[in-house]
Amino acid sequence: MDNTQKHIPIIALVLLIGVLSSCSIKTRLKRADKKFEIGEYYDAGETYKQVYSRISPKKDKQMKAYVAFRQGECNRILNNTRAETMYKNAVRYKYQLQDSIVFLRLAQVQAYQGKYREAEKNYLLYLDSHPDDYTAQAGIYACRQMNEWKKQPSRFRVSAAKDFNAKRSSNFAPAFIGQDADALMFTSNRQEKQKGKKTLKRPSPVTGIATFNLYSTRKNQNGEWEEIELPDGLYSETETEESENDSTASGGKSATAEMGVCCFTGDGKTMYFTYSKPINGQDLGAKIFTSTRTGGEWSEPKEVKLFIDSTISVGHPSVNASGDTLYFASDAPDGFGGKDIWMAEKEEDSWINVRNMGPQINTSGDEMYPSMRADGVFFYSTNGHPGYGGLDIYKALPLGYDTTGLMTWDLYNMGLPINSSGDDFGITFEGKTDNGYLSSNRGQKKGIDMIYRFILPEMVFAVEGSVLDNNGDPIANATLRLVGDDGTNQKIQARRDGTYRLNLKKDARYVMLATARGYLNQKQMLTTRDLYDSKTYQQDFSLPMISKPVTMDNIFYEFGKWELTPESETGMQALVKLLNDNPNITIELSAHTDMKGDSLFNKRLSEKRAESCVRYLIEHGIDRERLTPVGYGEDKPVVADKAITKRYRFIPEGQALTPEFIANLTEEQQEICNQINRRTEFKVLRTTYKLY
Hints:
This protein is 26% helix and 27% strand. Helix 2 (41-52) packs antiparallel against helix 3 and helix 4 packs antiparallel against helix 5 (101-112). By secondary structure, it is an alpha+beta fold.
């Protein structure tokens, strides 16, 4: 037999295997696409993963890019960090030639991981082909502002809520049952038994993890959260058993029914929640159901009809306190892209006027988890507005209705630490307080959601310090008066050690006055406006004695000259303030020199220096009649007080720094004494100026 003929069956077999392999890949890809379209992202992702490894980039680069992108999409939706790798593979195989959205998705998952520089580059690449895209613009803005935002966290304090989180499970979307905030319900896929009932353990084809149920708990008399359990009435043994026989739209083993993301009317008697259950092997998406409570048990749930088209998914309900307005998330047509927040109004037993909340709230990204507080402030999560990565919680303050009847809002990102680079969502508040709970997968490599407790500490403002004399000694029983533009008019006595403390109010301006018999007054201004955190001011008062000359610090002249140097500005301004704080005093302002040089020259020099100081004071608004300049030259050496002796141990207290005393000192000590003698000082002459 001819060798060529011998090889024909082998070649045919190879070709047949290639054809079958190609058919197998296309069949699996078709199955994966179907799962993806109905939202079974985990199962779809696993199939894409199998298909991806079997596609040769040399033979079908376009398909390789497509499957890499779809695998990235599944991982992104499921918060799997592998999404970044798959999007990069999609870019490597030129998926951007099919759809440049790959750059946007890559940027989003990089921001989610805190890789803001890399994210910015990919946002810019996407913006090249979509220059008007708000989500990309918002992403770029956030990446560029991130360093500044991190420096300005809010006052909130966030910590894991250990009472609600179970290990190796996701726990999220807590909601208080009524305004008393003593009972709470949340979503979890924990697997322990509740009251002897079977929990739903079959993994979901959507997430690849156990299905979610609602759990409830309430506080006992000690304010502690009691045992977490399935709410009575919502689950039955029959439903649990039946769920294990359901089948998915793709014909495989079933995903069981899931309940999650609930809300309550203000009285806690009516509940709305998200419900999803395959029917006759077909996944019809998420729906909103409602149930009412009689006694301690919930009634049989009923579906809330919002759209005529039953294939539209709705979820994440939030109802206002009165129960007549429902907010929810949906991918309904005529939205702005992704999932949007919608609203509806109740009329008897029906919901009418179903409408999108508009472009202020919604973007081309995803907006979910709405929450309306009783005070009309609206909260929700978005990845379309500027944020830290993933979903961020936004606060929306109502401003009034526009000409179309749509509410307008003032939007605020809740900032750190409420938000993070991960997904932050499902916020709820304890009654009228600013404390409550939220959900987040921050710091979780596997994307597990946890419930976090947040509190907003009360802002405390105060001023404290000491009242001292000009030697630094405390003035016992000095009087402090606090007057504010908020109506405050308070007077207290300093303690025996001279210390004091006064509480202040937010958004106020204050004038403080420290006084003591035999001392000059001192005034200070304080404000608590534009403060965003607690603050205690440290304010010490130094009161000069009326009966003693006061040496002025930081008054300087050029050697042998009388003009004030620029370095004297601080000291002279302090004297201006003192004279303004004490408008009824007149002073003698004197200049002194050391013993060096001619005594007549020193006297004339000191006179001119005193006149320079007086001239400065007059130029800054002090009446000439209150000022008497005197130049003493070297005639009045300093007499050491306790403060000088404490600082320079070689100078005895009460010792006059005369030429005779200085002559017996070391050269270094002589220079110290001469420096002390070179001074500018003032003493009070009268305390009744313009009083009579």
